[in-house]
């Protein structure tokens, strides 16, 4: 559920007409709903009620400071995958003891920053990384809290580019080797082993892969405890999918996911961490764009819009579907026609949708891409020298620009000319 609805024929973001934001900031832009962000966070938090837990928002999904602060105010922890994200989380007021550090390639400097600034735990992804964390911790005279990310070798049944829990993926250590890697961890004086971590992929629309993975985590918990490890925290990753189309079967709800966690792991008396990203931010954001031209091609009409693959890369990168709706609601009964909806970038991949049915559009009309809040703005680039598009946050009847569109001069002047030129 989200807070982008038509009212009297116009699309609203909460209590603000989307067209009003477009008039104020220009197109294209991203707009997020505070109420939706908050609602989604609370759904997870409530799903784990009765169990000691922390919901750590996977901030790579959408990492604007205002979004982080909105969630931090509700008590969210953060899952970070880089020094930049760590520093963003701290700047948004998240205490170190609510930040978990994930990612396969944490560098010495990143580990140092997190250990000196405060960290809840590192989710360790390999033995070489574990050794570096130990070295940094020893140098600082502290013990680094760690979990080890195990790869349970289950098929997440999602897009290949976002499946992470199969043995051929680069993530974690094979669960079959967990005993020896935990033994190594226990022997390193700079580390304190506190738990197990597991994240099998993103946009999962079925609970079964989670069940298979968590059953393996439960078994591993018992095995490691029998070996003398004090396993007291289980980080279960993120990955719960969202509906990208209205017609699709609905993915499982957070409450069902929470129940699965309790069923598979509740008996272990561990603190539970989850790291949802997409489900919190995805349907909390739209990308709004304007039709530049309607071009009649051979046998098809193109809607050329001012948003492009550099602004929202998911369709080009993952063949992702986004519902695209007009900002002015068509009068009921309007006959639709198929359009290929494309951006201005010089690549055929800059195609958002093929033969998508929409009410007839003309130049100047606004369209909104639904479910664009996660992996949207954060993946944007300035390809084709198109400045990053602004981000706007709505709160009831208020809205604020939370990242400005840079001017062309700002974009150009970030480059510097060497002395020999
Ligand atoms: C990407 C990622 C997440 C979040 O995944 P979503 O599908 O956005 O919920 C959580 N944990 C880790 C380690 C990740 O890499």
Number of helices: 12
Major β-sheet, in short? Answer: 9 strands, mixed
Query: How big is the Rg?
Result: 23 Å
Number of separate strands: 21
Report the helical percentage: 25-40%
Distinct bound molecules: pyridoxal-5'-phosphate
Question: Could you write a compact summary of the structure shown?
Answer:
This protein folds into 2 domains: 4-31 and 282-412, Lyase, Ornithine Decarboxylase, Chain A, domain 1; 34-279, TIM Barrel (Alpha-Beta Barrel), CATH 3.20.20. The chain contains 12 helices and 21 strands.
Give an account of the 3D structure.
The chain has helices spanning 18-25, 34-47, 65-72, 83-91, 108-117, 127-140, 178-187, 208-226, 254-265, 278-281, 314-318, 408-413; strands spanning 4-7, 10-13, 16-17, 29-33, 53-58, 77-80, 99-101, 121-124, 144-151, 173-174, 191-197, 233-235, 271-274, 285-296, 301-305, 324-326, 337-342, 351-358, 366-369, 391-395, 398-403. The chain is α/β, with parallel strands linked by helices. It has two domains: 4-31 and 282-412, Lyase, Ornithine Decarboxylase, Chain A, domain 1; 34-279, Alanine racemase (TIM Barrel). The strands form three sheets. Strands 4, 14, 15, 16, 17, 18, 19, 20 and 21 form a nine-stranded mixed sheet that branches. An eight-stranded parallel beta barrel has the order 5-6-7-8-9-11-12-13, surrounded by five helices. A three-stranded antiparallel sheet has the order 1-2-3. It starts with a strand and ends in an 8-residue tail after the last helix. 47% of the residues are buried. The model has no long low-confidence stretch (mean pLDDT 96). Pyridoxal-5'-phosphate is lined by residues 58, 60-61, 79, 102, 199, 202-203, 237-239, 275-279, 374.
């Amino acid at each position: 559920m989200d807070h982008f609805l038509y009212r009297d024929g116009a699309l609203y973001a909460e209590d603000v007409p989307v067209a009003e934001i477009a008039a104020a900031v220009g197109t294209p832009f991203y707009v997020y709903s505070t109420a939706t962000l908050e609602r989604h966070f609370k759904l997870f938090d409530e799903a784990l009620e009765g169990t000691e837990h922390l919901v750590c928002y996977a901030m790579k999904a959408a990492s604007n400071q205002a979004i982080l602060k909105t969630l931090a105010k509700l008590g969210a922890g953060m899952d970070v995958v880089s020094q930049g994200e760590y520093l963003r989380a701290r700047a948004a007021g998240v205490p170190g003891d609510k930040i978990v550090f994930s990612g396969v390639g944490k560098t010495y400097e990143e580990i140092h920053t997190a250990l000196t600034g405060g960290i809840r735990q590192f989710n360790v992804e390999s033995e070489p990384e574990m050794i570096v964390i130990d070295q940094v911790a020893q140098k600082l005279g502290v013990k680094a809290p760690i979990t080890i990310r195990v790869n349970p070798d289950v098929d997440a049944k999602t897009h290949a580019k976002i499946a992470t829990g199969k043995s051929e993926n680069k993530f974690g250590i094979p669960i079959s080797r967990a005993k020896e890697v935990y033994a190594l961890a226990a022997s390193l004086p700079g580390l304190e082993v506190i738990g197990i971590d597991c994240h099998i992929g993103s946009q999962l629309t079925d609970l079964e892969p989670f069940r298979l993975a968590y059953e393996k985590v439960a078994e591993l918990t018992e095995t490691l405890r029998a070996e003398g490890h004090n396993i007291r925290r289980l980080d279960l990753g993120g990955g719960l999918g969202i509906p990208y189309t209205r017609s699709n079967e609905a993915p499982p709800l957070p409450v069902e996911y929470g129940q699965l966690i309790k069923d598979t792991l509740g008996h272990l008396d561990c603190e539970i961490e989850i790291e949802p990203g997409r489900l919190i931010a995805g349907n909390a954001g739209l990308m709004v764009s304007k039709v530049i031209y309607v071009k009649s091609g051979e046998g098809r009409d193109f809607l050329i819009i001012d948003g492009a693959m550099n602004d929202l890369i998911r369709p080009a990168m993952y063949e992702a579907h986004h519902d695209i709706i007009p900002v002015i609601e068509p009068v009921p009964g309007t006959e639709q026609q198929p359009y290929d909806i494309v951006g201005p970038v010089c690549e055929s991949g800059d195609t958002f949708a093929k033969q998508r049915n929409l009410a007839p559009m003309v130049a100047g009309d606004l369209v909104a891409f639904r479910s664009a809040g996660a992996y949207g703005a954060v993946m944007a680039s300035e390809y084709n020298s198109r400045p990053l598009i602004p981000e706007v946050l709505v709160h009831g009847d208020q809205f604020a620009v939370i990242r400005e569109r840079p001017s062309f001069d700002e974009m150009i002047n970030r480059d510097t000319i060497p002395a020999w030129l």
